[in-house]
Amino acid sequence: MRRSFKFLLRPTSKQAAALAQCLKDHRQLYNAALEHRRTAYRMAGVTVRYGDQSAELKHIRGGDPDGQARWSFSSQQATRRLEKAFRAFFNRVKAGRTPGFPRFKGRGWFNTVEWPKDGDGCRWDSQPHHPSATFVRLQGIGHVRVHQHRRVLGTVKTISAKREGRRWFVVLSCDDVPAKTLPATGSVAGIDMGVASLVTTSDGEHIANPRHLAATADRLAAAQQSLACKKRGSKRRRKAVARVAALHAQVRHQRLDHAHKAALALVRDYDVIMHEDLRIASMTRRAAPKPDSEGGWLPNGAAAKSGVNRSILDAGWGVFLTILSDKAESAGRELIAVEPRNTSRTCSRCGHCAKENRITQAEFACMACGHTAHADVNAAINILRAGLVLREAAKAA
């Protein structure tokens, strides 16, 4: 399996400045490559590709020995990153989705530099004569101390330096990471994602939704109000920006921690887990405007929809499902995604489907057979049954 390991870097002040300069150089190279493509197509109808721009890097480094020459191995990743952005753009165009043409990157939107291969401009743990410390050697920066809190498994393939607020991290992408297969339990479950409870299983167990963003909302509001009063470009504004970023980082880390623990508990208890194949981006899309006949606008419930969207995003369904998928693969568990449509409206006893069956957020009462249950548990049972049908069909095929 391919897995990533993320560790905190502890650079010196000079190394931190060199890392920041490295990010700046790569961001400028990315923006210059994007401008090159735009201008060539607009002025001459010529499509510039990754191979063309990669070949030009040699001349760029030759003309700027103090800049791009320091990043001879990693600078190609900036043009490769742009190539990926264009591929994703054309894929969205072909799929009929909103394309989103690649944009120029500002300082806050370019925070990662990648070295494509361990040994080419970078080296992991390159000073074995320091038994009590771990270092990573980065071209143009030197040996940077790493706070390694767990063992790295597999073979290190690529090394990235990432800036998050005022801190720096190293991300190791490793191949051939051994799986940690868990013993079989003989249990299967369907899980229903929600806002009141993050996860409800078909066995009737609920995993709480801590609502980390809602718990920090007052502190965030105060920090953002303070930020709005600061003069742009001032030192106080930079400090206010750092405070807001630190609060958002705290929420993100709390959400990740809870998702890891919840996913691990499910993977340990069940061999097969069925979940809803949720389209979270579509579910959290803002309410469409409703024009009236007089050139104005009709009420469209935008305020209520915004509140629901905020609650869904605060729950972190996408993060949880991604982590659950990774842990299930590592543990040798099976994960099955099912169509979520009508799972909360269908009676798990008789199969009657009607909107009126769902009385409230937590109550379910079938209008046909009178079956009552917790609405989320009823939905989880329906998800389990749908997943078992898909599983049997896959085996028969």
In a few lines, what is going on in this structure?
By secondary structure, the chain is an alpha+beta fold. It has two domains: 173 residues, no CATH class; 162 residues, Nucleotidyltransferase, domain 5, CATH 3.30.420.
- Major sheet characteristics: 7 strands, antiparallel
Strand content: 15-25%
Q: What does the average pLDDT come to?
A: 90
User: How would you classify the helix and strand content by structural class?
Assistant: alpha+beta
Unreliable parts: none
Global Rg: 25 Å
Can you walk through the features of this model?
The structure is a single chain. With 397 residues, the chain is α+β, with helices and mostly antiparallel strands. Helix content is 44%, strand content 20%. It has 2 domains: 3-175, no CATH class; 188-212 and 253-290 and 298-396, Nucleotidyltransferase, domain 5. It is built from 10 helices and 16 strands. The strands form 4 sheets. The chain has a 7-stranded antiparallel beta sheet. A 5-stranded mixed beta sheet has the order 10-9-8-11-14. A hairpin with a 3-residue loop joins strand 4 and strand 5 (142-147). The radius of gyration is 25 Å and the shape is globular.
